[in-house]
Write a structure and sequence with these properties.
single chain, 236 residues, alpha+beta
Length: 236
């Protein structure tokens, strides 16, 4: 039995070999497709990457996209004996097509397409564990966590202190479920992820660090950080 996001109306279609097929009501464009995929990832604790996109101006389809499991990657390692918990060569795939409604009196499925325009083909045969720490740590970081880290950067935190602060807040928030959440990449980013996010935000805010403006930018950043820390200490 395939686990699907609730609160959607489905019409199950005959299987196509290893592929499960079904239609989804009111999924009509790219935005609603991506919203459904996001809910499916949350429901199944799986992560999907775009494998292929298609032109959106087709005669029969409004939108079409193919996904692959995130554990199907080009590892660029010659020795095939070397494996990891991420690079498993998983062949699970997800194909989504939004049909274009056209009531020409010829297509017998016109009314079904009108109400349930989205066709999903799913091969959910993963070759790795899913709901385990080894698999969950590769999940994408939740947008709310990214936003929290960015806010911490802007009040003077460096990558290490921002991650430490996030861990403390997560421990309070999750309580006895903390260690389960801490093993999930959705809620606990790696130190490398936090550092790259900090570098990206620094560059966006202060520009390239390869010019003479670098010293001035660094001084401004440190001054703001020092002022922020001083204000917090004074308030406390």
């Amino acid at each position: 039995m395939v686990s699907l996001p609730p609160c959607f109306d489905y019409i199950h279609l005959p299987d196509d070999g290893e592929w499960k097929r079904f239609r989804v009501k009111d999924i009509r464009d790219e935005e609603s497709v991506k919203a459904w995929v996001n809910k499916y990832e949350g429901e199944t604790k799986t992560t999907w990457r775009v494998l292929r996109t298609f032109p959106s101006s087709g005669k029969y389809n409004v939108y079409k996209i193919h996904y692959r499991c995130c554990h199907k990657t080009d590892r660029r390692v010659k020795d095939i004996r070397i494996r990891s918990t991420k690079h498993t060569g998983c062949e699970a795939k997800l194909q989504i097509t939004v049909n274009r409604f056209k009531d020409d009196g010829v297509n017998q499925d016109a009314q079904i397409i009108k109400s349930h325009p989205c066709v999903v083909k799913l091969n959910a045969h993963h070759n790795h564990t899913i709901n385990t720490a080894e698999a969950l740590k590769y999940r994408d970081v939740d947008p709310t966590v990214k936003e929290k880290l960015l806010n911490l950067f802007h009040v003077g935190h460096n990558p290490a202190s921002a991650l430490k602060s996030h861990k403390s807040e997560l421990m309070i928030e999750k309580g006895k479920d903390y260690y389960q959440a801490a093993a999930d990449g959705k809620w606990m980013p790696t130190a490398d992820f936090v550092r790259k996010l900090f570098d990206k935000e620094f560059t966006k805010t202060y520009g390239s660090i390869c010019s003479e403006k670098r010293n001035e930018s660094v001084i401004n950043l440190l001054s703001k950080a020092f002022l922020s820390v001083s204000v917090r200490k004074f308030v406390c």
